Amino acid sequence: MNSGSDSELINSAESLDSDDEDMVQRFSFADIARHPLRAARYNTTDIVMIQKALLAGIQAGQKDMVALLLDRGAQPNFYRGRRVAKYLFGLHMLPDYPAPVAPPHFLAVQCGNEELVECLLSRGAEPDRYHASPLYRAVADGRKDIVLMLMQGGATNVESSLKLEAQRGDQSMMESMLEHGARADLCGAAAHHVALRKGDDDMACLLKSKGAPAYYLCEPKDDWDKEEGDGTKPELKLYGCGRGMPQF
User: Fold this and answer.
1) What pTM was computed for the model?
2) Is 239 helix (H, G, I), strand (E, B) or coil?
3) What pLDDT, in 10s, does the model give residues 195-221?
4) Does the N-terminal or the C-terminal CB of the chain have fewer CB atoms within 10 Å?
């Protein structure tokens, strides 16, 4: 499996040795280039097949198989699509055509398997690493147990999730996230705006009490009340990047 030439080998000057971490992480080859099996001379095709086997195990709910594959070198953080890149200034547009296969952690959340979500977290899965957001997916599915697990596991990119809760009027989920570390003062402006526009006084008061700033934009309802999605659809999005603002 791990012999032969690799037509997709990555130029180390462009990837592994780059000093610009954000630039490296923008490209879909980053997880291939850094994969531990690279050192064992596995080629790109082999690595991708191993990672696909991990996804198949997750989809089938086979915890023992998932654990075995992780023991043998499969990675909980692996994705050939967009990562979350943090920029200080400017507007950025970046498409994914077609949509790549979901990251392992996102797929476990999508399948609603809390045991596998916990297993992957214990093996180093990073909830905020990719544009496909496990936290948003868990909120959309009403899985408060998984939401709590993700937040305890390091999920901090919460703005879209808080906004979704305001759009759906899910005060119980909102209270739970705010109690477990979601920063309304940094990431609650969009949710607060939606609550005010919808006339949801209880939600608006809750967010205001936690420090959520208020802003008033002349937006049509189709814009401010549109659910942003979990990041898995192949679409072109425009983001204004800044502290507490959406990022890609």
Assistant:
1) 0.78
2) strand
3) 999 999 999 999 999 999 987 666 666
4) N
